[in-house]
């Protein structure tokens, strides 16, 4: 069949990953819960807010890299808490220094504290500077297909449209825009923000996303370690369902067993 989907590896900046779940490191009760939840998730990429988390810039304080060593995890520094391009670029350069020349970053430039919606104008500015500066930029953005296209043209290695506002757990609020982005993009598309539970992650993968990034859905669950494991399975289930291709929806019933040849 010509419409059969074949799987392809999940590749970022030339490196192949087995897990399609990326997780954040904030909002946990303590370092031990962080470690256990991330282990349970099976994630290989963990994102770290450089402006809020110590990865070596504050000597003498607990260092996240002690429990999430870079030889085991790919550390994805992010620019959470930045509200303009200048701040975001400075934060990425600091992260590169702290991580010995590490170029993979997650760019997010926020518009305001109430919505944490991306400021796409400042995001585009920062992306252009960072790409020219040799960074491999994964970028948090709105679910606007035109902005996603422009970020790809600038040279970002992945676009990460929000499913819902950060930390809301509302799930995928606009699957139609996501479908347009997925149809047009020639780079990985990852859902970032808004996932609340395992079914949200599965839906994102069923739409065709290459991966999902989440933090609050796990860290704010009543049992974060258990939710982390649920998310691991949800991502796998969603990917398999996408590859398998769902049955068409029908208005009327269709018998599971054929009616022809029934004993009379």
TrEMBL record:
A Gene Ontology annotation in the biological process aspect, one of them, is: thiamine diphosphate biosynthetic process
Give the enzyme's EC designation. Answer: 2.8.1.10
Name of the coding gene = thiG
Q: Where is this protein localized, as stated in its record?
A: Cytoplasm
Top class in the EC scheme: transferase
Per the record, the pathway is: Cofactor biosynthesis; thiamine diphosphate biosynthesis
Give the record's keywords alphabetically. Answer: Cytoplasm, Schiff base, Thiamine biosynthesis, Transferase
Q: Which HAMAP family match?
A: ThiG
Top-level division of the source organism's lineage: Bacteria
Q: How does it assemble?
A: Homotetramer. Forms heterodimers with either ThiH or ThiS.
- Where it mainly occurs, coarsely classed, is cytoplasm
Q: Which family does it belong to?
A: Belongs to the ThiG family.
Q: What is this protein called?
A: Thiazole synthase
Record function comment: Catalyzes the rearrangement of 1-deoxy-D-xylulose 5-phosphate (DXP) to produce the thiazole phosphate moiety of thiamine. Sulfur is provided by the thiocarboxylate moiety of the carrier protein ThiS. In vitro, sulfur can be provided by H(2)S.
Q: Name one Pfam family in it.
A: ThiG
> Could you tell me which species this protein originates from?
Pseudomonas fluorescens
Quote one Gene Ontology molecular function term. Answer: thiazole synthase activity
- Record-linked InterPro entries: Aldolase_TIM, Thiazole_synthase_ThiG, ThiG
Cellular-component GO terms for this entry: cytoplasm
Q: Which residues bind 1-deoxy-D-xylulose 5-phosphate?
A: 167, 193-194, 215-216
According to UniProt, the reaction catalysed is: [ThiS sulfur-carrier protein]-C-terminal-Gly-aminoethanethioate + 2-iminoacetate + 1-deoxy-D-xylulose 5-phosphate = [ThiS sulfur-carrier protein]-C-terminal Gly-Gly + 2-[(2R,5Z)-2-carboxy-4-methylthiazol-5(2H)-ylidene]ethyl phosphate + 2 H2O + H(+)
